C-alpha cells in the first residue's frame, strides 16, 4: 500500500512539473491530503527577475480561496447570534447603497455569500491601509450597476465580499485580520498564513507573472483582504481543508465551528449549472458519485485551486505564479482526482447543430469592463471580447483585444470557446422568464443589449 501511494505521488509530481513547463509557468506548489497524510512539493522558481527555488513551504497568494475564510468567520458570528444570514445588509450597514435602490434595500448576507446580489462585482479600488479602508470601499459602491435583478441568477461577485468584510468588522469591533487570526488561524495552527505584506516579506514567497514578466504591484489593498488577501503555503491550506472536512474542532480539540455550520457552508443554496452549485462561499459539484467542494483563486499573475472530497478524506491544493496557471491548476486537479480516487471529470465536447441554432446566440453582451460580441461568419459562431477599461484598475489603459475565437455548442444553452487564449472556457446562456436570452455568463455576467 505504501508503495502504491508513493507511486501515485511520484506520478502527480512529475505531471505537475511537466504541465507547468508546457504552459510556461515559472513556479508551482502542490499538496495532497489523503487518508490523513499530507505530501507537498515545490517546482520551478519564485520570480524570473530574482529567482529562488519554489519549495513546499513557499508562500503564494491564494486569491479568492480567501472568501471561504471570510465565510468561516461569518458562520462563527452567526453561531454567536450577532449575524443573521437572511437579514438585510442594512441591518448592519444602514447607509449601504448601490445604484439600484431595491437591491440596496433587500440584499441579504446570504445573497453576498452565494453570489446572487447581481450587481457589477469586479470593482477594485485601493482605499488605503487605514482602519477605515473597508468602510471607504463600501461607500464607493454607490454607483455599481445592477446587471440582473437581485437574486435572479448566480454571478460571481467580488464587491459583495468587501461588504461582508465590513459587516464582520462592524459587528465584532475588530479588524478583519485581527478576528481571523484570533478565531481561525491561531487555533488551527496556521502560522504560515498571512494577510499583511510586511509579514510575508520575511519568508520565501512567489511573485505573479504576466506575459513572462513579473506582475506589479504585488500586494492587495487592505480592503480586499476578505476578498482575496490570504497568503500561505500548501501545508497550511491543507490543514484548513482538513478542518472543513472534519468536526469543527482544532487539532487540540478546541471548538471553532459547530459541525452543522460546516455542513451548511457545503450545502447548495443556488444552482449554477445542473450539478454545479454554490453553498455558503464554497462551490459544490454534485455531478459525480463523490461530492466535490472547491474554490479557486487568482490575483495579479497567481492562480490557485483547492478541491475537497469530504467523503473520501481527500484534498488537493495547487498554486501557480503565472496568469496562464489556470491551465495547470485544472489539469493537475483532474489528474489527482483520477489517480487517487478514480474520479474522471467530464470533458465537454461540442455537438453538431444547424447554423440557425447557433445564430440564435448572436448578439452584443455588455459588462462595464468588457463587451462580448457573437456573430455568424462562414457558418460558424464567432466571438470577440473587447475591453473598455483597464482591469483591475479602471484608470489604466485596457489590454489589447484578444483575437476572435470560435464558439461551439456542448449542450442546450451551454457554449464553449474552441480556440485562442480562452480555449475550453465555458459560456452559459441564461434566459429570462419569457425564454429570450438575457445574459451570457462567460466567467462573469454579461447583459444582452438589444
Please write out the topology.
Blueprint: H1 2-22, E1 27-34, E2 37-44, E3 60-61, H2 66-79, H3 101-106, H4 109-113, H5 133-139, H6 159-172, H7 176-188, E4 193-194, H8 197-200, E5 209-210, E6 213-214, H9 225-228, E7 231-232, H10 234-244, H11 259-265, E8 270-273, E9 276-278, E10 283-285, E11 292-298, E12 303-309, E13 314-320, H12 325-341, H13 355-359, E14 363-366, E15 370-377, E16 380-387, E17 405-411, E18 414-417, E19 426-431, E20 437-442, E21 444-449
Antiparallel strand pairs: 1-2, 1-13, 3-7, 4-7, 5-6, 8-9, 9-10, 10-11, 11-12, 12-13, 14-15, 14-21, 15-16, 16-17, 17-18, 18-19, 19-20, 20-21
Helix pairs in contact: 1-12, 2-6, 2-7, 5-6
Mean pLDDT: 95
Number of domains: 2
Strand order of the largest sheet: 2-1-13-12-11-10-9-8
Question: Which percent range describes the beta-strand content?
Answer: 15-25%
Parts with pLDDT < 50 across at least 5 consecutive residues: none
- Distance separating the two termini: 61 Å
Q: How would a crystallographer describe the biggest sheet?
A: 8 strands, antiparallel
What general form does the structure show?
globular
Q: Provide a count of the helices.
A: 13
Q: Would you state the CATH class of the largest domain?
A: Alpha Beta
Helix content range: 25-40%
What is the CA-based Rg, rounded? 21 Å
Secondary-structure-based class equals alpha+beta
Provide the CATH topology of the largest domain: Beta-lactamase
By CATH, the architecture of the largest domain is named 3-Layer(aba) Sandwich
Name of the CATH superfamily of the largest domain: DD-peptidase/beta-lactamase superfamily
Amino acid at each position: 500500500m505504501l508503495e502504491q501511494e508513493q507511486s501515485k505521488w511520484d506520478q502527480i509530481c512529475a505531471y505537475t512539473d511537466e504541465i507547468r513547463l508546457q504552459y510556461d509557468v515559472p513556479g508551482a506548489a502542490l499538496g495532497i491530503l489523503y487518508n490523513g497524510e499530507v505530501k507537498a512539493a515545490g517546482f520551478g522558481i519564485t520570480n524570473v527577475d530574482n529567482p529562488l527555488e519554489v519549495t513546499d513551504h513557499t508562500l503564494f497568494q491564494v486569491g479568492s480561496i480567501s472568501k471561504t475564510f471570510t465565510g468561516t468567520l461569518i458562520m462563527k458570528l452567526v453561531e454567536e447570534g450577532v449575524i443573521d444570514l437572511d437579514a438585510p445588509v442594512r441591518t448592519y450597514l444602514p447607509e449601504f447603497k448601490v445604484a439600484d435602490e431595491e437591491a440596496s434595500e433587500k440584499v441579504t448576507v446570504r445573497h453576498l455569500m452565494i453570489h446572487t446580489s447581481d450587481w457589477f462585482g469586479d470593482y477594485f479600488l485601493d482605499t488605503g491601509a487605514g482602519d477605515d479602508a473597508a468602510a471607504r470601499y463600501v461607500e464607493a459602491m454607490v454607483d455599481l450597476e445592477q446587471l440582473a435583478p437581485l437574486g435572479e441568477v448566480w454571478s460571481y461577485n467580488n464587491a459583495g465580499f468587501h461588504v461582508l468584510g465590513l459587516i464582520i468588522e462592524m459587528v465584532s469591533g475588530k479588524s478583519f485580520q485581527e478576528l481571523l487570526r484570533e478565531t481561525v488561524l491561531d487555533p488551527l495552527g496556521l502560522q504560515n498564513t498571512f494577510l499583511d505584506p510586511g509579514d510575508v516579506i520575511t519568508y520565501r514567497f512567489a511573485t505573479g507573472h504576466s506575459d513572462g514578466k513579473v506582475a506589479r504591484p504585488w500586494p492587495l489593498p487592505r480592503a480586499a483582504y476578505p476578498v482575496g488577501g490570504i497568503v500561505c503555503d500548501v501545508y497550511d491550506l491543507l490543514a484548513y481543508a482538513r478542518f472543513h472536512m472534519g468536526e469543527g474542532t482544532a487539532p487540540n480539540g478546541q471548538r471553532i465551528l459547530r459541525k452543522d455550520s460546516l455542513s451548511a457552508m457545503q450545502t447548495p443554496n443556488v444552482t449554477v449549472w445542473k450539478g454545479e452549485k454554490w453553498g455558503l462561499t464554497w462551490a459544490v459539484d454534485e455531478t459525480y458519485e463523490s461530492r466535490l467542494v472547491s474554490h479557486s483563486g487568482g490575483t495579479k499573475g497567481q492562480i490557485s485551486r483547492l478541491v475537497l472530497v469530504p467523503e473520501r478524506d481527500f484534498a488537493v491544493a495547487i498554486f501557480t505564479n503565472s496568469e496562464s496557471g489556470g491551465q495547470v491548476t485544472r489539469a493537475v486537479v483532474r489528474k489527482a482526482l483520477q489517480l487517487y480516487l478514480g474520479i474522471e471529470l467530464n470533458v465537454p465536447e461540442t455537438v453538431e447543430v444547424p447554423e440557425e441554432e447557433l445564430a440564435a446566440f448572436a448578439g452584443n453582451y455588455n459588462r462595464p469592463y468588457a463587451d462580448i460580441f457573437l456573430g455568424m461568419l462562414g457558418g460558424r459562431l464567432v466571438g470577440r471580447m473587447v475591453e473598455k477599461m483597464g482591469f483591475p484598475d479602471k484608470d489604466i489603459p485596457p489590454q489589447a483585444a484578444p483575437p476572435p475565437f470560435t464558439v461551439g455548442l456542448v449542450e442546450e444553452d451551454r457554449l464553449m470557446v474552441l480556440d485562442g487564449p480562452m480555449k475550453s472556457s465555458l459560456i452559459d446562456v441564461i434566459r429570462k422568464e419569457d425564454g429570450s436570452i438575457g445574459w451570457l455568463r462567460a466567467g462573469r455576467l454579461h447583459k444582452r443589449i438589444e
